[in-house]
Design a protein that fits this description.
Blueprint (H helix, E strand, L loop, with lengths): L1 H16 L7 E7 L8 E9 L4 H18 L10 H18 L8 E11 L3 E11 L6 E10 L4 E3 L1 H4 L3 H15 L25 E5 L2 E6 L12 E5 L1 H4 L8
Parallel strand pairs: 2-3
Antiparallel strand pairs: 1-2, 3-4, 4-5, 5-6, 7-8, 8-9
């Protein structure tokens, strides 16, 4: 996963540099010292280099997401990625000193790449894997969407003309994809939507292939089921989008 995302990131950055309509980025890496049997942190993300509101918004949003991902005890006062990395390493050291049996090193790998960009919108995808003990680690997939013209981050309610209307539309596609009867509970085939009502995932992002709805493990199904995705081609999604492709 690491090598694939690294090639993708650098390739996309190269394309961006050669296209005047694309925001300029450079790769930015933060990592812990390499050693055997020790906690490892590696962050590889695009860093917007232009001195604009949009670049500052993107960089701040990425930094905020990553700081939150590395915040193990929810008491960290880290204000940048280096401080967040050091806090993660310190948290492991303090815990392992208290509980010697919990000596398996932690790991945090976070990589970002541009999944979509046109003249009005840019989406950055953050993929992370965090292990802080236990039977397995936890992977997340975050999509951050930005309005290039206004220099603002776009949240779910900003993407659609009518959020409720799009939700109903997405539910019909989801039921068809997952072979769920159109009538009856959305959980009738084993999903775990709360209150047995369909809802959109936390993460929705633009990709070159369409609008991607990405449900994290545990969001609507068991961890063993992994992430659940619904890719909606722009030909179908555009009527609902404030920023159609």
């Amino acid at each position: 996963m690491k090598s694939t995302l690294s090639f993708l990131l650098f390739g996309l950055l190269l394309i961006a540099c050669n296209n005047k309509n694309h925001l300029p980025f450079e790769p930015y890496t933060v990592s812990s010292d390499s050693c055997e049997n020790c906690t490892k942190v590696k962050i590889e993300i695009p860093h917007a280099t232009a001195n604009t509101k949009l670049s500052k918004t993107i960089n701040a949003a990425l930094e905020g997401e990553i700081i939150a991902l590395l915040n193990f005890d929810e008491e960290s006062d880290a204000t940048n990625l280096i401080e967040a990395k050091n806090a993660f390493l310190k948290d492991y050291e303090e815990l392992s000193n208290k509980f010697l049996e919990e000596s398996i090193p932690w790991e945090a790998t976070i990589e970002g790449a541009i999944s979509f960009e046109n003249d009005t919108l840019i989406t950055i995808n953050l993929i992370s894997y965090i292990y802080t003990g236990g039977a397995h680690g936890y992977g997340t997939n975050r999509f951050l969407n930005f309005n290039k013209l206004e220099g603002a981050e776009l949240y779910q309610e900003n993407l659609f003309h009518d959020l409720d209307e799009f939700t109903h539309f997405a539910e019909s596609l989801f039921r068809k994809q997952e072979n769920i009867p159109l009538e009856g509970s959305i959980n009738s085939t084993g999903f775990m939507f709360e209150t047995e009502q369909f809802y959109l995932p936390t993460n929705i992002g633009y990709t070159e292939d369409g609008l991607l709805l990405f449900y994290e493990p545990y969001e609507i199904a068991s961890f063993a089921d992994g992430p659940i995705t619904l890719l909606i081609p722009f030909s179908k999604a555009n009527p609902y989008l404030k920023y159609p492709k």
